[in-house]
Amino acid sequence: LKRAKPTRGTQVYEPSQAKAARRRFSIETELRRAIESEELRLDFQPVIELATGELAGFEALARWEHEDRGAIAPSEFIPVAEESGLIVALGRWAIHAAAQTLGEWDRKAGKRLPLCMGVNLSAIQIARDDVPTLVEGALRDHGLTGDRLTLELTESAIIQDPARASKVLEALKGLDARVAMDDFGTGYTSLAYLQRLPIDVLKIDRSFVTGMLKDRDSVGIIRAVLSLADALGLETTAEGIETEALARALTELGCTYGQGFHFARPLGPDAALDYWLSRSA
Ligand code: C2E
Ligand code: MG
Ligand code: MG
Ligand code: MG
């Protein structure tokens, strides 16, 4: 490592790149341990059906509360997990943990809740793991039917190996699971894939939703995505709805579902079940 020259006084400054590389390396080592020792948990963000205001389900989001460093954001540890291959173990854990929580909610409520759980899948999992067998096992272990899970994947999962992605999605449909295209609009999916692949939902990326109230372009893009989805018979979810005005605008435009801090932040498992119970009372 090249050290920066000491400047003023005696302190030695470390080049920030080296510092970042070191943090990355220790995060990788510690993430490996965190997956094994169950230092990770899931939070659950409500997904609302816009036309009725009803709770449609939740999206499971990984959280890492590090004992020394405090909370580490998914935007930091998911990329490290992907580059190190740890995403395969993390993804297996996430699917099982999400299915387990939904199964527990059903048992606590004494009935099959009409809720669907979204779980994020990385492109690396599609490439390296047997995702359909994994999902099948999680459903079986926790007594769920396939329609209770929505697997969320990004456009990159399809672009990297369309033939494989197609097989995986077909197999997921064979289990009756739902498939969502996450962060839609930020990647390069061709319309042919959207038409050909068994996708149920387009999740419109937060950047377009946030832009809606400020610029006409974002509104135009959202309209275009909604009419594209309509033409292809897909449902839509708007991510990152932070205000009442956005919720109203997206409802009027005919978006199917909404998710965002305006409705609720991601909640722990007990708070999420309470959220459902209080709304369905
Ligand atoms: P995502 O799948 O697009 O998830 C939505 C993200 O938007 C979440 O960030 C959520 O907390 C955040 N969000 C929701 N509503 C709002 C809002 O109104 N305003 C703002 N500013 N943000 C909002 P989070 O939890 O930090 O996760 C970031 C990303 O990390 C996720 O994006 C997903 O790509 C990835 N991720 C999280 N958990 C997992 C996992 O278990 N597996 C994989 N492969 N990726 C995961
Ligand atoms: Mg997602
Ligand atoms: Mg998303
Ligand atoms: Mg997003």
Automatic annotation (TrEMBL):
GO MF term (any one): cyclic-guanylate-specific phosphodiesterase activity
Domain EAL, chain residue ranges per copy: 24-280
Full protein name: GGDEF-domain containing protein
Source organism of this protein record: Allosphingosinicella humi
The organism's taxonomic lineage, starting at the top: Bacteria, Pseudomonadati, Pseudomonadota, Alphaproteobacteria, Sphingomonadales
